[in-house]
Amino acid sequence: MTVPARETIYALSSGSLPAAIGVVRISGPQAKAALLAMIGRVPAPRQAAFATVRDPQSGGAIDQALVLFFEGPNSETGEDVAEFQLHGGRAVVAATFNALSKLEGMRMAEAGEFTRRAFENGKLDLTAIEGLADLIYADTESQRKQAIRQLQGLLGNRAEAWRRRLIEALALVEAGIDFSDEADVAADVTSRSLEAVRALQQEIAAVLAEGRRGERMREGLVVAIAGPPNAGKSTLLNKIARRDVAIVSPYAGTTRDVIEVHLDLEGFPVTLLDTAGIREATDPVEQEGVARARARAAEADLVLWLMENEGANPVSRPDSPETWTVRTKIDLGSDQSAGYRAEEYAGGSSRPEQRHFYELSAVSGEGVDRLLTDLTAYARNTLESREPALITRERQRNLLEMTEKALKRGILRGEEGQEDLFAEELRLASQSLGRITGRVDVEDILDVIFRDFCIGK
Ligand SMILES: Nc1nc2c(ncn2[C@@H]2O[C@H](COP(=O)(O)OP(=O)(O)OP(=O)(O)O)[C@@H](O)[C@H]2O)c(=O)[nH]1
Ligand SMILES: [Mg+2]
């Protein structure tokens, strides 16, 4: 049976049209043939050429373009790659696609397919690809920095170095097993190996203990605005977002769904949620809204608990790790505010809420800046650190946890002198480590990873 030749793929790799420039990329064995058919030559690799792009059947001019050629394996995908930098008109790109589709062995690329080929040709490991996806989706400066570090191999290189050390330790154990009739040699080799594995296990445990900073940076901190109906939650959200995102009305029970706004607080990503006012609702739709509000507040990193005055606060607060109390509508200057002090709202709880008590008016704007300043400091304190986060995804964390557990089990076996079982655990550990970078069988997870990419990437 002959393996069919690899198909050549093409796609628009730039943004939505019309635009100043539309970049059409081609990757695969037919890239050169496509260039010959459409511009009559293959430009020197890595040198921009100005050319008239023609329909290969009619010979009619489609556009004038800047054309690049990268000869495999020295290209992004590792295959021959051609790139047309066309004028970014819809008809221009459509005519170019039409011309390409008529050539032998060519088809449109699927989402993420260029990057997948780069992976398959050993150009990028999985952690770098995850970094690349994060770079494309980064909204804030701190997210961008984390993503570029990951793309440059922060975790990938570490995981590979760990794996090499592990394989050396494994080789020692296996050597010990071969010498098992010479008890002294075997014991010595096992103890050297144990020492190396203990050091490795401790290093990995320390990385796992750092918490989920990297994952939170990717996803953004979640801050939920919650409180009784009519407290002014949606008004505050709109004020902070500087646009009319949520409906505001004097009727209690206006907001039903959870509304999200993504904020960039001096480079740190924060997702602000507006939720339904929490009360004993009778309307089934409102009941659902209240249930959602409670659930999202409970999962949030921080809850801003809004209330207008004392009397309007009979409802129970959702249990969340951190809550700041915000008194709203201070422009109304109601008498109810007399004697209003933070201590009264600590509600007997031991949480140190007094430090985070705010009074503001979302209408006049008074007090909003102080809240925003503190939110920014909170995001910075939570996300920033001198050491960049090594783990940025659940996938990486799970595999590293599996590695660490196998090492721990292995150490026990080694200490008991069960070299065979020790070696087996080290093999399992090295498999988990290898799956982080994609060195060992990862076919099952590839689709999940590349699903995040757009077509043309
Ligand atoms: N004077 C004054 N009125 C405000 C302020 N904030 C909100 N309001 C008014 O209070 C009413 C309720 O505001 P919303 O923002 O809809 O309140 P909510 O907490 O989202 O209410 P639900 O979605 O029903 O839970 C509206 O009439 C707002 O205009 C404020 O700071 N000052
Ligand atoms: Mg509302």
Brief synopsis:
Belongs to the TRAFAC class TrmE-Era-EngA-EngB-Septin-like GTPase superfamily. TrmE GTPase family. With about 450 residues, the protein is of the alpha/beta class. The chain folds into 3 domains: about 10-125, Gyrase A, domain 2 (2-Layer Sandwich), CATH 3.30.1360.120; about 145-205 and about 400-450, Four Helix Bundle (Hemerythrin (Met), subunit A) (Up-down Bundle); about 215-385, 3-Layer(aba) Sandwich (Rossmann fold).
Q: Can you describe this structure?
A:
This protein has 457 residues and is an alpha/beta fold. The protein folds into three domains: 8-123, Probable tRNA modification gtpase trme, domain 1 (Gyrase A, domain 2, 2-Layer Sandwich); 145-204 and 399-450, tRNA modification GTPase MnmE domain 2 (Four Helix Bundle (Hemerythrin (Met), subunit A), Up-down Bundle), CATH 1.20.120; 217-383, Rossmann fold, CATH 3.40.50.300. Helices cover 44% and strands 16% of the residues. The chain contains 14 helices and twelve strands. The strands form two sheets. The chain has a six-stranded mixed β-sheet. α4 (126-137) packs antiparallel against α5 (141-151), α6 runs antiparallel to α7 (183-209) and α6 packs antiparallel against α13. The radius of gyration is 29 Å and the shape is flat. It starts with 7 loop residues before the first strand and ends in a 7-residue tail after the last helix. The structure holds guanosine-5'-triphosphate and magnesium ion. Guanosine-5'-triphosphate (GTP) binds next to α9. This is tRNA modification GTPase MnmE. GTP binds at residues 230-235, 249-255, 274-277. One of its GO terms (biological process) is tRNA wobble uridine modification.
